Every structure is written in C-alpha cells, then in structure tokens.
Amino acid sequence: MASPYLLGIDTGGTYTDAVIFREGEGVCAKAKSLTTRHDLSEGIAGAADAVLARSGVPVSEIGLVSLSTTLATNALVEGQGGRAALVMIGFGPQELARDGLAEALGKDPVIFLPGGHDVHGNEIRLDLAALEEALPVLAGSVSSFAVAGYFAVRNPAHEIRARECIRAATHLPVTCSHELSSRLGGPRRALTTLLNARLVSIIDRLIGSCEDFLERRGITAPMMVVRGDGALISSAEARLRPIETILSGPAASLVGARHLTGLDRAVVSDIGGTTTDVAVLEGGQPRLAEEGAVVGGHRTMVEAVALRTYGLGGDSEVHIDDRGLEARLTLGPRRILPLSLAAMRGEGVVAVLEKQLRATHAGRHDGRLALRTGLPETLAQGLQPQEQALYARIGEEPVPLNELLTAASQRAVLDRLVARGLVHLVGITPSDALHVLGRQNQWRADVARLGLELAARRRDGAGKPIAASAEDLAEKIVNRLTRQSCEAVLTACLAEDGAEAIDPAASLAVDRALARTPGIARFSISLDRPLIGLGASAPVYYPAVADMLGAEPVIPEDADVANALGAVVGQVRASVTVVVTSPEEGRFVLSGGGESLRVTGEAEALSAARVRASAAALERAGTEGAQDAIVTIAEEIDAPEVEGSRRLVEARVTAIATGRPRMAAIG
User: What does the alpha-carbon distance between residue 213 and residue 44 come to, in Å, rounded to a whole number?
Assistant: First the structure.
C-alpha cells in the first residue's frame, strides 16, 4: 500500500508556506501566501489551496497535516499577547524581582494567596478569599489566567483548586505551572506560565483557523503542531500548552535543513519577515537548551532547541539616527508593515506619501503610518483611557503619524497598542529596499520607492541628505541587514564556543575582520562548518553573509519552505519525570506523573518511579498523537555517603516515549 501524502503548513509573521510531501518522493509541491493576521484562515487557505492545486493530490490521499509557526515566538519578541492575570500561591511580592518576572508582568494584575506545599508535597493552608473577591473585576479586563503555586511540581492540588475557582467564575482559559514543567524554580515557572497564558488566544486562533480550513476542504487527517524541540504534538494539546510552540518555526526549519542538505555539521540561519534564528547542527541533531529557551529576553522553562532568536528580518523597522555628522542605520527588533505591502490594500498609502513628498518642509514622522490589524474587538479589552482614545482614531485605512501623534506622550501610547497586536506600524523596511533594487517583486515597488525617497531626503548633522537617492538608501539598508545578520550568526557561534563575552556588534577586532580593514595587524574570521541559509530572502543575503564570515554558503533549493517541510518529517516525543525524595530514613515520596505517592524502601521507590514514568510517558505520547511509541529511561540519582552510609537525597527518573504520529487511513 502506498504511503500517504503529508501536508505541512508554516504560518510565519509575513508568509504562510505549504508543502505536499511523500516518503520516497520528497517535496511534491510548495506554495506561499501572505499571512493574514486579522483572519489567519485566509493565509492558510491561500497557501494550502495553491499547493493542493499544484500537486494534483486528492484530499482523500492526505494522511497527516502538520503545522509549524513563528507566531508565538514573534509575539514574545515583539512583546505581544493577551492581557493575563497572574495568581501566585505561597509566594510573596518579593518573588517578582527574580528571573525577570516583574518585567514580564508589566502592568498586568497579580494576586498573592496564602498556601502552597513544602519540598515533600505537604500542604500549607490555602486561602482563596482574595482571588474570589478579585474575579468579578478581572473577568472583564483580562483574556486568561496563569496560576503558579509554591512547590506545585511536588503537589499540584492548590493550583488545581485555584483553576477550578477561576473557571467557574470567569469561563476563561487558565494555565497551571505544573502542567508546563516538572522543574523547581517557582519564579521562572511562574514566568513561563504567564507567557503561556498570554499566548493562548494567539495559538487558539491559529489552530482554529487551520481546523476550519481542513473541515471546509474535507480533509479528515489528524493535525499536529511542531513544538520548540522539533517534536510533534496534537493540536488539542498545543491549545492547552501554547508556550511549547515557541521556537516551533525555527525548530521545524532545523529538521527541514537536515532533511534538505543531509549535513551533520553546519550553522543554520533562518531569516523570516520578523526574526532571524541561528542554531548549530552537530551529529545531525540540534542541541537542546538545558536551562530552557530564551525568547524575547525571557528565559523560560520550555525545552526547545538551543538557538538564538534576533529581531531581524525582511520586515524589520529601519531606524535612522541623523544626529551625528554621518547618519547611522540600525534594523529591528520590531516588525512593521512594509510600505510596499501596505499599499496592496488600497491607494491610501500612496496618497499620503505623495502628499508628504510635495510638502515644502519635512515632517517628523514622514513615511510612517498606522492602521488597525483587524483583530476582534474582544482583544482590545482592558485598554487605558489614553489607549482607547488613540485606538479610536485609528481605522482600517492608514493614518499618517504626523497627524495621529499630536503630543510627544502619545508615542508611548501607540507603542503599547502595537505591543498588544491591535495596531500595525507602517514604514520602510529591508523588503522595501529590495523592491527598489529589483531583487524582490511581489508587492508594489513604486510605493517602496516613494518611501525611500522620503527617507533619503532627511539630513544628517552636517546638513547633507542621508542618501543620494532611493537606490543609494536601499543599498545601505541591504548592507546593514547583511552586517547585522553576520553579527547574529557570529554571536550564536561564539556562545556555542563559550565566548559570550565577545560582542560582535561592539568589538573593534570583529569589526575590522568583517570589514576586511587593511592594516599592519590584520584580523580574519572563519567558521569551521558550512552556513545553511534558509528563508525566502536567503539567496539574496546569505552568499554575502557567508563570504563575510569565511564560510561555505549552502542554500537548498527548497530553503523558502524548510519550516513547512520540517513540520511533516518530525516525530512525537513525550517526556515525563518522576522525582523521588526521602523526608525520613527508609520512607520515600514520589512526585510527578500523577498524585504524590509514599513508598517504603529505596529499591521499591525507584522501581515504582520507573513504572510510573514509563506509563505516564506512553499515555502522554498517545494523547499527543503518537502510535507504537517506544520508551527509554534516564535516571539522575543524588545519593551521597553520610557518616559511612548511603543516603538518597533526590532521584529524577525520566521516561521518554517516541513514535511517528498517527495517520489517517487512505485509499
């Protein structure tokens, strides 16, 4: 019987990609469509319909649909997400100062409750009164809740009681910290839980949009989502734990890069519209981040590939510093809507830019506009009066910032609306520069030229225009992206080498090496392995990036859809850890994989931990969509000699169940 066809979809910040793949045949067809943030189903339908038409594969032959996405990663990098309330049980306000929790929380509400457990899972009295009092107000001002309890990984009972209380009163999504990690470290677990709660609505909309499309097309195949470690998870589980999809797109691209090139040793750099993701392949596998993934400056407890994500891409915001004798350009980290793309929606952008070009005097915000993203009004809950007033002045048609921002304080208000995902900023980007240079042509090059002409006439500290022409400025922007890409790749490689102290963006030696500066003392840089460039614009930038870094460039034929391909060639991987502690000699407590269990005898406790971890891992793998999973077990035992006798302090028994995802019957 022939193997089924697999449909892979990757929803990025700018484009949604789709591939049809079959074992033994490889990529049968591929297609792209613009990601439509106001209604993700439009972009998904555009890409998937196109790839189905090109392949000629009947929907009845599709055995699996798998989705990767950068939406969660982009949301954290750009500071976006729904407003969430954090409930901390057994913690005090001083805990907010740890692990960046206060910075991540921002102005979102937090409630502290008495309760929690000790290291062995023994209960400390829980009092829900403060939560019950706050819920009527919070129900109308937040979109989700995050609950973190003291030592909840040893006993989750208090988190579960708080979750039931919240759901009964508000019917809103609730994330508990014990569902996301079995590791100790309350504040960082709380941070991870908070970020998960903020991402619920974003990933729920994405998965719902994809499921709606599949239903309309009569595709009944199971749907999977790529996790941050490259493994697959069922769409239902991804809805509950969206934080696990951070770095989903980059992880899928690494799986795709390995499949496309066959290289075991390489540096992989994937440039998208919003971010550039860099990782190192060793032995054909990406290394996992032992301490948890770092995204948007937040170190989470999510197991994910060890990569670095930078706010640098084709749609990065272009910053022009014209205060010095010579203007300086920098890119990112925020994504904005390219002028050439915004103009595809209508002539409003063109009219604004032409009017500004005719003006006698340049405006402070020439070439920059704002418009609503088109998200549902329910996601605008909890806006402050200043935010609501500014939001009301922004519509579906772009509004020039020269007219919108009548006071300096409003810029911060606008930035908050952008961070909530409610408003798009529109301006010049590297994508516009490529349109002006004729290296990209899918959007409106004439509008890109208008924007760059406006920016080029700005004057530096010496009173000279910052660029001689739109083409001159476009070259400078492209060169800047090439240079920042080099710095991003080099930063990641130095980190792998344990040389994080060297900052390529600040090092004079690195600058001389990258710029090939002549001198008596010459500096050079080279990588010890090829540089794989992925992304639609990789053929434009990465030959020059590799040359600057002294590396062999490898840009696969299907580099533009590596994420979507990686989404369908992965496996399901479920991990469960059971912790064994000893509160008193001869007696042991098992935590994780179910309710706490007390056992007499060390051998009996370890045996019970292995059985429990294996059973829980197999059950989770089945829930996450695996078939015929295989279990492997790893143990970490801390048992020092104390006064001549062995004493078990803690043991961690981890079971990992791995298998291919279940597929629909075909034929």
Answer: 8
Q: Which two tokens stand for residue 217?
A: 């097309």
At 325, which helix (H) or strand (E)?
Answer: none
- What single DSSP character describes residue 559? G
Choose among 309, 302, 300: nearest CA to 279. Answer: 309
From the list 503, 509, 537, the residue with the least C-alpha distance to 273 is: 537
Q: Is the pLDDT of residue 1 over 60?
A: no
What is the rounded CA–CA span in Å between residue 235 and residue 68? 11
Q: In whole angstroms, give the CA distance from residue 280 to residue 263.
A: 11
Torsion (CA) 400, 403, 407, 411 in degrees, nearest 10 = -10
Yes or no: say if 136 and 76 are a contact pair by the CB < 8 Å rule: no
Backbone angles phi, psi at 222, to 5 degrees: -60, 150
How far apart, in whole angstroms, are the C-alpha atoms of residue 337 and residue 315? 7
- Taking alpha carbons only, the member of 339, 371, 341 closest to residue 353 is 339
Structure tokens that stand for 80 in this block:
């976006």
pLDDT for the residue numbered 204: 82
How far apart are the C-alpha atoms of 456 and 559, rounded to whole Å?
33
Q: What is the pTM of this model?
A: 0.74
- Token reading at 426: 């529109």
How would you class 216 by CB atoms within 10 Å of its CB: exposed for 0-12, middle for 13-18, buried for 19 or more? Answer: exposed
Q: What are the CA-CA distances from residue 90 to residues 85, 190, 638 (Å)?
A: 16, 12, 27
Q: How distant, in Å, are the alpha carbons of 88, 98, 187, 537 from that of 94?
A: 12, 8, 10, 46
Please list the residues that pair with 108 across neighbouring strands.
none
Query: What b-and-e string marks burial along 407-433, b requiring 16 or more CB atoms within 10 Å of the CB?
Result: eeebeebbebbbbbbbbbbbbbbbbbb
Alpha helices in 139-247 (DSSP H): 157-170, 186-217, 235-240
Query: Rounded to an integer, what distance in angstroms lies between the CA atom of residue 174 and that of residue 86?
Result: 10
- pLDDT tens, residue by residue, 186-223: 888 888 888 877 777 778 888 888 888 889 999 999 99
pLDDT in tens, 358-375: 988 888 899 999 999 877
Question: Band of the pLDDT at 78, cuts 50, 70, 90?
Answer: low
d(CA 246, CA 227): 7
Q: Is the distance from CB of 617 to CB of 610 less than 8 angstroms?
A: no
Coil, strand or helix at 494: helix
547 contact partners, CB below 8 Å, separation of at least 6: 553
Q: Is the pLDDT of residue 162 over 80?
A: yes
**Which amino acid makes up residue 384?**
Q
Per the CB < 8 A criterion, the answer to whether 554 and 542 are in contact is no
Exposed, middle or buried, 458 (CB in 10 Å: 0-12/13-18/19+)? middle
Angle (CA) 583 585 586, round 5°:
105
Look at residue 419 in the predicted model and tell me its pLDDT: 82
- β-bridge pairing 307-310 and 316-321: unpaired
- What distance in Å separates the CA atoms of residue 417 and residue 425, rounded to the nearest whole number? 10
The answer to whether 104 and 45 are in contact (CB under 8 A) is no
